[in-house]
Amino acid sequence: MRAGAWEGYGNLEQKGSLLVLYSAHRRDLLKYANGLVADHSVAEDIVQEAWLRLDRGTEAATVSEPLRYLYRIVRNLALDLRRKGTRERAVFTLSGVDSVIEQQADAQPGPEQIAQDKAQLEAIQAVLAALPERTRIAFEMHRFGGCKLREIAAHLNISTPMAHVLVSEAVDACKQQVDWP
Questions:
Q1: I need a surface site. Which of 38, 60, 90, 169 has the fewest CB within 10 A?
Q2: Is the pTM of this model over 0.70?
């Protein structure tokens, strides 16, 4: 290995120069890994595995930029883990079709829930009927039609912020009548 490739990290010949590099950048590597996998304990495992691979890899080959190499190892390990998770979810989802069907059969609401839902629907219909026409139209376009606020504003010939106000007023009126998310 070339000593110049390790500028700032001491002489390559010194035992432990890789450990010094790893120790100096461990916290940043953890932040980087955590950003990739969004799980601190998994990020710790990835950084530890990256250190082991760097240590093993530099015995067999010359590494001109060990820090960049270490970050690349962390990135590749995180991507490998993500791909593995995707494959596992696909396998478990496909093999669990029978259990999903059984769960769906049991997911039907009971008579009490149906009655409660009907009562809430009637209450919302009454609230909507009592709203000013423009407010009701804005709400229905947004919630039932999936229209964006700018589309509502164009249809009603109002500003986008005003369309937001109308939809919010309608939602608030509905929330007052029923327990609605």
A1: 60
A2: no
Q: Look up residue 49 and give its amino acid.
A: E
Hey, how many other C-beta atoms are within 10 angstroms of the C-beta on 90? 10
Cα angle for residues 53, 55, 58 (degrees, 5° grid):
100
Question: What is d(CA 58, CA 1) in angstroms, rounded to the nearest whole number?
Answer: 9
CA–CA gap between residue 61 and residue 67 (Å, rounded): 15
Q: How many CB atoms lie within 10 A of CB 50?
A: 24
pLDDT digits (tens, 9 = 90+) for 102-146: 656 556 778 888 888 888 888 888 888 999 999 999 999 998 888
